[in-house]
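Good morning C.,

I know you're traveling, so I'll keep this short. The sequence:
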Amino acid sequence: MSSNRGDRWRVSSYSNGDGECLEVARGLEAVGARDTKHVGEGPELWMRPSSWAAFVGSVSRGTLEG
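The tokens, ready to paste straight into the viewer:
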């Protein structure tokens, strides 16, 4: 999974403009996340939509284990 499919990245609606932002790209087969400070140069995390939904749900509920 990669961003070479022309995915459209968007900044989180929770971003406050201080440079500590997360961008997300949603495709049919994958969801990507990356740090806005390293666009095009830094790492991207890609996963299946079901895995992304489970991750976001865990963060929202405060049940994410590290």
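Safe travels,
E.
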